[in-house]
Amino acid sequence: MSEDLTKTPQTLTVEGRAHGWRVDHYLSRIFPNHSRGQFQRAIEQDAVLVNGLSVKPSRRLRVNDRISVKLPEEPDSGIAAENIPIEVIYEDDDIAVINKHADLVTHPGKSNYTGTLASAVQYHFDQLSDIAGQLRPGIVHRLDRDTTGCIVIAKNNQVHHQLTKQFEQRTVKKEYRALTQGVIDRDNDYIRTHLKTHPKVREKMIVCPPEEKSREAVTKYHVLERFHGYTHVQLLPETGRTHQLRVHLQHLKTPIMADRLYAGHEKVFASELAQTEQLPDEQPILARQALHAFRLSIRHPTTDAIMEFEAPLPTDFQNTLEALQKYRSSQKS
């Protein structure tokens, strides 16, 4: 079967084992050299038909469905490489692991075509995967703009596919650290909800009952330290939904400190924590959500070895934690 779907359209008949699968998931399994994202974009452009009809990526397949697929050619113009400083935690011939800093969007979007991590890795590495599209060279997963920490980069398409498969199968282990406004009562617990896009504020997600447009989200947490009015918490997401950790902590009524979307404020001052008068020229010790991707564990796509990477707490997070310990009488869990 030809893998060059941009030149040779393919027609498939769905077999019994794939009954109930999503069409985008099925195609990415049949054609492993292409990403699920590529097929989703093709479906949106009506380049994938099921029984001669346009479908959504979430369309569930039935036995003997006939699928025709042809991938539109990607535009030649990718993003420009930019000399943006990045911190490389680890690098070999197949992957790189970056400690992403705050105020850095992972890949271009409608309002931020330049100044992204994708542009930075394009500059710093000679070879990157391209199956996620010309605007996402090497990008396997993402972190929110102001979330810091570990993110893995793929240097070729085969590695990219293997890493994507690990994320989809939830074998990647991710550990985050967060500082919350409010005290989390339980030492350990699971947060299990469904999430969907906010009906009026499109950049936000909300907790909702299970429904067609919602997706299950699961987070395990462990309290590391409690303060008067605040918590330092370890977060272990078992799913990877948009804004999952931020929404889940808001759901507990303990939103992440300085989270503009979900806490309603975006700056924290030392005087606020010390409960003293704010000085006229005082600078905030924290000016973005206190969320950090602290540790990432993957199976190396080539050697098959389990590898664990750690990004130290960034300065603003560490300074805020120390201020809490100084002014808010910490009690270790």
Short précis:
With 333 residues, the protein is α+β, with helices and mostly antiparallel strands. It is built from seven helices and 15 strands. The chain has three domains: 60 residues, Roll (Structural Genomics Hypothetical 15.5 Kd Protein In mrcA-pckA Intergenic Region, Chain A); 83 residues, Pseudouridine synthase; 159 residues, 2-Layer Sandwich (Pseudouridine synthase).
Total domains = 3
CATH class of the largest domain: Alpha Beta
Q: Tell me roughly what share of residues is in helical segments.
A: 10-25%
Just name the CATH architecture of the largest domain.
2-Layer Sandwich
How much of the sequence lies in strands comes to 25-35%
Largest sheet: 11 strands, mixed
- Output the helix-strand order: EHHEEEEEHEHEEEEEHHEEHE
CATH superfamily of the largest domain: Pseudouridine synthase
Which regions have little confidence, pLDDT < 50, spanning 5+ residues? Answer: none
Q: Which structural category fits the helices and strands?
A: alpha+beta
The count of β-strands is 15
Q: Mean pLDDT, rounded to whole units?
A: 91
N-C termini distance: 57 Å
User: What is the fold named in CATH at topology level of the largest domain?
Assistant: Pseudouridine synthase
Number of helices: 7
Approximate shape: globular
Q: Radius of gyration over alpha carbons?
A: 22 Å
